[in-house]
Design brief:
Distance between the termini: 41 Å
Radius of gyration: 16 Å
Structural class: alpha/beta
Helix content: 25-40%
Strand order of the largest sheet: 2-1-3-4-5
Strand content: 5-15%
Largest sheet: 5 strands, parallel
């Protein structure tokens, strides 16, 4: 039986890559590298992208969907990438939403607002019923700590990080 223990980072590179990269580093520090999946480090050259994404999602108990102002991903032709059934971000989110064991947390970055149900393609509409979390550059530390408190309900903190936190509290 597969034990779910990972945090999956879903994002669009042209939208929130900087925020997600920074968030990834914080997640690894607190939860451990073996508990965080991000496409950049999680997919080796030559791997089947879709297969590895699905495997990462199957091993995840929490999916953080980073959404910025350009999350829909307008392509060169002017249409939205999120409307394409083969769009990677859409596939990640639809797969996560379909799995009742996965906690899906929309993470709003760069002042983004939660999209309305009418704005999203039908398979993504359940995302609008998920409580979103706002991540601000101005409140980065406080926001990250609060987000991690929510994630800790599903993913245990890595042993090394737990010991460091206890030492810091005693000092």
């Amino acid at each position: 039986m597969l034990r779910r223990k990972k945090i999956f980072l879903s994002y669009r590179r042209g939208d929130t890559a900087g925020h997600v990269g920074r968030l990834h580093d914080e997640l690894v520090r607190v939860f451990g590298a073996d508990r965080v999946f991000m496409d950049v480090g999680g997919i080796a050259p030559g791997d089947d992208f879709i297969h590895v994404l699905r495997q990462g999602l199957a091993e995840s108990i929490v999916v953080l969907v980073a959404m910025g102002p350009r999350w829909a991903g307008v392509n060169d032709g002017g249409s939205r990438r999120i409307d394409d059934p083969n769009d990677f971000v859409r596939l990640e989110v639809v797969t996560a939403l379909a799995d009742q064991k996965v906690r899906v947390i929309p993470v709003l970055c760069e002042g983004a607002k939660m999209p309305s149900d009418a704005w999203l393609p039908a398979p993504l509409s359940p995302l609008t019923r998920r409580q979103a979390f706002e991540l601000s550059d101005m409140r980065w530390r406080r926001d990250v700590d609060a987000l991690f408190d929510a994630v800790k309900q599903s993913v245990p903190v890595a042993g090394r990080a737990k010991r460091a936190a206890r030492r810091a509290a005693m000092a």
